[in-house]
Fold this sequence. Notes:
It is built from one helix and nine strands, in the order αβββββββββ. It is mostly beta strands and 129 residues long.
Amino acid sequence: MKLSFLRRFAAVAAIVLSSAGLATLTAAPATAATCTVNTYEPTWVSPTVTAKGSATSCSSAADITLEVYLFMDGTQVDASWNECNSAYSCTGFASATNRTGNQQWCTSLTVWVNGGYYGNYNKCESNNW
Length: 129
């Protein structure tokens, strides 16, 4: 599935440096499945910083699309899109090489279930590396 520029732009523009990390939501009425969304703080295992997000424990099999973005100091440094068809869970990652000095790293996750927008979730690191 080719993601439109507007969807990508909206996901990038929606980054908010927040601490919301775990949410359970009911999707739009056209989307029958409900899923638990997990957005994780970026992790660092030298030399790589990795962002991770997932939709798990879906109430029924669904077509899940995850857009995972990794931000450094508010600038997108990597992105990935993962599609899981007829699935009860889906996980995605984005990564980049760490830079010298102290940066603020954040994960932004946009979730689509059965073609319907499910939400955008953000989580930033809480440690200085």
